[in-house]
Amino acid sequence: MASIEMKNIVKQYGDGFAAVNDVSLDIADGEFMILVGPSGSGKSTLLRMIVGLEDITSGDMMIGGKRVNDLAPRDRNLSMVFQNYALYPHMTVYENIAFPLRLSKTSDDEVRRRVTAASDVLELNDHLERKPANLSGGQRQRVAMGRAIVRQAEAFLFDEPLSNLDAKLRGQMRTEISRLQRRLGITTVYVTHDQTEAMTLGDRVCVLRKGKIQQVASPRELYEQPINLFVAGFIGSPPMNFLPATPEGDRLKTPFGDVRIDPARAGKLGGHDLLMVGIRPEYFEDASLVDEAKRHLGSTFRARVDVTEWLGDSQFAYIPYEAPEAITTQLRALSRELDAEELRTQAIVSIDSTSRIREGREAEFWLDSRKVHVFDPETGDNLTRDAEAGAELTRMATQDRVEQVQESQDRASADGHRMGGATAASA
Amino acid sequence: MTTRKKVLWGVGGALIVVYCLFPIAWIVSVSFKAPSDLANRSFLPTALTWENYRLILTGGASDLFLPALRNSFAICLIATAISCLLAMFAAYAIARLDFPGKKLILSTALVVAIFPVISIVTPLFNLWRQIGLYDTWPGLIIPYLSLTLPISIWTMSAFFREIPWELEQAAQVDGATTWQAFRRVIVPLAAPGVFTTAIIAFFIAWNDFIYGISLTSTEAARPVPAALGLFTGASQFEEPTGAISAAAVIVTIPVVVLVLLFQRRIVAGLTNGAVKG
């Protein structure tokens, strides 16, 4: 187990294109770090530079305090799960898992012990003699994980390991990976473009855009205190709504009426004529269902509802609005970058599932103004970000995490003693 | 498919098979004819005789045929083995590595393959005589390599390209050196490709006539196709057609056996299950 430190890592291709541009990132020992970003953001390249499959143009890659820039993959002692699993088709499942041990000339007894331990953890015992071609997608995925956990690697690297599975299996494997990582307590770097995976698995998430780090923080901090328009738009589903706004004192004039900003935050908005307000869908509510006690914390407005979607436990309403040219261009560029379909200038609003608001009618909505963020439409910076509150969220997450790891390792070693044998975790 | 279509396909297929196999059937039939029977104006021999086979295996022509058979086998097998081994490394490099001159190597290989053999054989004859390779095994193995290597490199690099590169990278991450990754992961997966290439290379060498007749003079190195050309009848008025046919049948047998043996190894889809499917 080891920490991974990256200092000013650059990956430049022959034609001068920088796939990864000046990335510095510290991954603590035992931490679960997610690299996330739209396609072309350099996340996979970064992962492949950690493992050594891609040359580093400049910068320092340190694993466990040792500079590994010039080491071959086999000398870095990392294990990796590939997107398409990369199982050896001519070997049985047993030999696939045993392969790293065979290469290190481990004795047969030791190989058997470790492979059995790994296959116990991954419930592969019934399939050890089969060939990968005869396995289902989920089973192949587990074999690939088995090959990764069978030896004492310094860190696990995952390259979009779940993207080839169907939705149900993906959810299952996600919790599996999470449990395994907590139990083994091994430093893990996980590349994904799926934000559900990013939010649920990671201790910290690193959002990349065009080879540059945008923000590294706990999922909660990313969600509540995004550093810029890109992160705000990327994290969250359905995405954050961006409305044009013009400041007037401590109020912002938006297509959905005036939004009052508390003075501390309003002070940061000086000097801008046109702003962008970011409001998450759940900050809205059907005005008729809002508690009187908190009604004064927000503002109400009337708008015509275009479409509603009732999902049983929740309900979404789509409200079109007019926006000036500068804002629509910015939004269009953003949605293109996020691989999203062309965003219409409409707000997606989450309302209570019992709400009787109907399509095509005008209705009254309530908007919680406490949590809105205001962005500079030119630079995309979040003008109202509270860095201290954000850092606090990440600190809390780190603390939770230490406790969780401790707990699950205690439990794993208790299991191990009860079974009277060592598990892959203690091996 | 309707019954009518099925019948048409069946008839068409049968026609092609007959068209392809008829010359072989004729040779087999001729090989069983007695010398006097050769011109009997019918497809089948009037009386089945093993005389031609006896002649080339134990009789007068066996001095010419048996050493040639031995030469052919040994020379072709050695040439095939060397060519496969060299082609394997070359093809791997071409499929996997980016190095300057890669295109040059591939096109040179192609040029060598289409270069007419007859134009090289005279200078080669002179050269071989001077350096003492004339009428020796290496004297044939080396030109055979020039015939078989280009096609081997092309076929095998196509096979190597089919193997997902990730397998090799996975092996390297698992702790393998480049050589270990090649030997333990790539070679087993490329095996069908190697066998296919080996068979093609063997056929090319086995069927060669021009080098065989020009670069040998005695039974020390003369291969079968050349020996067949030197068969003579019992007298100068007699055509050795029967003996040649019998020899041709015998020479065809190893080729057929080879294909039947390795047919199972040449199975596509061995890489199934390496990646998602």
From TrEMBL, chain B:
It comes from uncultured Blastococcus sp. SUPFAM superfamilies: MetI-like (SSF161098). It is a multi-pass membrane protein. It is found in: Cell membrane. The chain crosses the membrane at residues 7-28, 72-92, 104-128, 140-160, 181-206, 243-262. Residues 69-262 form the ABC transmembrane type-1 domain. Belongs to the binding-protein-dependent transport system permease family. This is ABC transporter, permease protein 2 (Cluster 1, maltose/g3p/polyamine/iron). GO terms for cellular component: plasma membrane. GO terms for biological process: transmembrane transport. Keywords: Cell membrane, Membrane, Transmembrane, Transmembrane helix, Transport. Pfam families: BPD_transp_1.
